[in-house]
Amino acid sequence: MTVSRRTPGRRPGGPDTRGEILRAARESFADKGFAATSIRAVARQAGVDAALVHHYFGSKDELFIEAMALPLDPRVVAARILDGTREDLGRRIVAVFLGVWESDEGQQRMKAMLRSVVTSDEVARLMREGMTRMILEPVSQFLEPPDAKLRVGLIASHMIGVALTRYVVELEPVAAADLETLVDRISPAIQQYVTG
Predict the structure, then answer these.
(1) Interatomic CA distance for residues 154 and 93, integer angstroms
(2) Which GO terms describe its molecular function (predicted)?
(3) Tens of pLDDT along 66-76?
(4) What does pTM read for this prediction?
(5) Dihedrals φ, ψ of 25, to 5°?
């Protein structure tokens, strides 16, 4: 008769290991915030090796995106915004941002995220830290002025205001305007933050 002996150490990945990692990540992000959460700490809390977290998620950014159930990958958004010149950056920002909201699924998920952000300090802090790292910082680095972070913050404020007006409050005629008209009207104001 062969007796199986369990070796000491962390357990290997099981059927719900991925879910346990996500649960641990959500708790860590909520308790400590984005910056203070580490892959090792999440792995320790989930009872797995850090290599397994990397296997499932690749990086802390990807773990954050999945754990927070973001409706979009902020790194993809940043790449699309930065794909071009500074002279048409304002138009790209508006087109990409509003494009995320335009599909039914995108709008539903963005509304849910926006409502969570405005009703929970913890969610707001997490989104602020995560979005700053994955979108606002790369866009700030793309700009030349010394006050680039302020400019990008003002752009974000402007675009969040547009989203609230069009998709949440549904104020007319902004809510009924076609996307191209909105992009045409809003882009010069956003470009002014970039180059003005």
Answers:
(1) 12
(2) DNA-binding transcription factor activity; transcription cis-regulatory region binding
(3) 877 666 778 88
(4) 0.69
(5) -65, -45
Residue 12 has pLDDT above 60, yes or no: no
Q: Are residues 49 and 81 in the same domain?
A: no
> Contact, 24 vs 10, CB < 8 A?
no
Instruction: Tell me whether residue 179 is in a domain.
Output: yes
171: left (phi over 0), alpha (psi -120 to 50) or beta: beta
Q: How many independent structural domains does the chain possess? A: 2
Same domain? 57 vs 99: no
Residue 14 confidence (pLDDT): 54
Is residue 54 packed enough to be buried (19+ CB in 10 Å), middle (13-18) or exposed (0-12)? middle
DSSP per residue, 123-145: HHHHHHHHHIIIIIHHHHHH--S
Q: pLDDT for 33-56, tens place per residue? A: 777 889 999 999 999 999 999 999
